[in-house]
Amino acid sequence: MDSKKAAGKNPRSASPACTLSNISRKKSVRIPLEIADNELSRTRGLMFRRKVVPILFVFSQEGIYPIHSFFVPGLFDAIYLSGDGKVAEAFFRIPPGKPLICPKRRAKFLLELPPQISRRLGIRAGDRIGWKWAHKTGGKREIG
To answer: Strand pairing of 34-36 and 55-63?
Structure first.
């Protein structure tokens, strides 16, 4: 997982098309995936949105990154990933208004997903997750 490639290379507002894969279970989905790679976008996350959208949080280093679900529009899953894309910890069907979701394991990335996406991918702790963006030129760049 190359965080330099993941951070800042894709337009945040456009939510570029991405193939998100559970490499361990050989399952993939094509979704728009927003990048939260700066303090402002990571702080906003899913707050004040009309619906839950897929977001990839990119942190500058591995660490413990607690979240909350105040002002979030619905249930979501929080999938914490190590620097090599391994699921360190996963929280499923987090309801709005939960004051603290605190992982015990360190992570470099966090995926916040609508529950149906996590379910389709069969995500579980220990799985390896990857992602590729489809560019307008038709090429793909492997990020995770």
So the answer is: parallel
- Mean pLDDT of the region 112-136: 93
Q: Look at the domain 3-135 and name its fold.
A: Jelly Rolls (2.60.120)
Q: Whole-angstrom Cα distance, residue 121 to residue 115? A: 10
Tens of pLDDT, residues 96-112: 999 999 999 999 999 99
Residue-level length of the chain: 144
Q: Return the pLDDT at 104.
A: 97
Q: DSSP labels for 5-68?
A: HHSSSS-TTT--EEEEEETTTTEEEEEE-EEE-SHHHHHHTTTT-SS---EEEEEEEEE---B-
Partners of 144 in the beta sheet? none
How is the beta sheet containing 87-94 ordered, strand by strand? 34-36, 55-63, 107-113, 76-81, 87-94
**Cβ–Cβ < 8 Å for 89, 106:** no
